[in-house]
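Quick start: read one record
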Amino acid sequence: MSSHFLGIIIALTAAASWGGGDFSGGYAARRISQYQVLFLTSLSSLSLLLILAFIWGEGLPSSRSMLYAVLAGSSGALGLAALYKALSIGNSVIVAPVSGIVGTIIPVIAGIFAQGLPGFAQLIGFMVALLGIWLVTRVGNNADSASTISLGLAIFSGICSGGFLTLIAQVESGQVFAPLVVAKTASVLLASALIWTSKQSIPKITASSVALISGLLDGGGNIFYLFATHFTRLDIAAVLSSLYPEGTVLLSTIILKEKISPKQWLGVAACIAAIWLITIN
């Protein structure tokens, strides 16, 4: 198996993990605030990453990698908080794909500047993936204030997510878990600051088991994504990992009974076709 194909598989695994994590986090934010959910998910992710870093015996990353990890963790934390809030008040079928498509643009541009244009099939795959995510966002013309707010939060979340995807990929290639520990530590601290400034209380660990599960899935997605960037191009890893909204949408349809239109199913099919195009080496 080529390293490129292995990177593709790992990136798709990251997408599946992130999709489940985002759905769980949005569900948890229906009961407690998005900042409290962010704190619990970040703490859960940090615990997982600390254990793995200890098992693998990774030391502290370099000062350069630590800086990128702190910036990535802060950006990712803001994005997750916005996404959890958007998912709790809006339609997941709209929120998740919008966040995903906006978040894809930044690392794709960064990858092209850093590594040049990918192959023709990959370029077509990128466009088909973006088309697919756009189709998934197609719902009716009715828009209330909640949907407008959730859409704005989804766009902001996507910008922050794109920042995370780009920044965390800049850490030294010899390490995976230690830089993510630094990133999640920054997330925990930022979540604590957001809770304090909003005059809320730090939640108990038992406040939301769903948020803790979300954190484990988010941490897993981070690990798989960072591994993927070591085996394939940044833009390819980012686009495939950013297919996570499909998982969020499907879970919302199955569990929350949110409806998916024929156009949205076409979008899901387009994303599957995009995966095939991007795998062509």
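The chain has one domain: 3-279.
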